[in-house]
User: Fold PADI2 deiminase from Aegithalos caudatus.
Amino acid sequence: AAPAGAVAFGVKHTEGAGARWPLDEGTVLRLSMSRASSEVNDNKVTVSFFAEGGKPINQAGVFLTGVGISLDVDADRDGVVEKNSPNKASWTWGPEGHGAILLVSCDKEFP
Assistant:
């Protein structure tokens, strides 16, 4: 999607500036977020395209919203769902055990 004549691109985002990289056919820019957003569209990425000699040609921008996903469970089996229970990562069988019990429906709902 780079404009004709572009030989390099640079990336700026809400936490600082990126360097310029050569633009080759098949170049893919992958964006990821390291934390959830505090509000919708609170992050912005701008990609700038440059011609030979560093002359700016065009820019493209996108607003991003990072969504946090967590499986919160009653890992202690005490009736309280906790977000950061230390027992989420392990399993112990029995009445004094810990770890989530998941009931998964794996049957074929539709032909």
Q: What stands out?
A: The CA atoms of residues 50 and 64 lie 24 Å apart. The chain is about 0% helix and 25% strand. The longest strand covers residues 56-64.
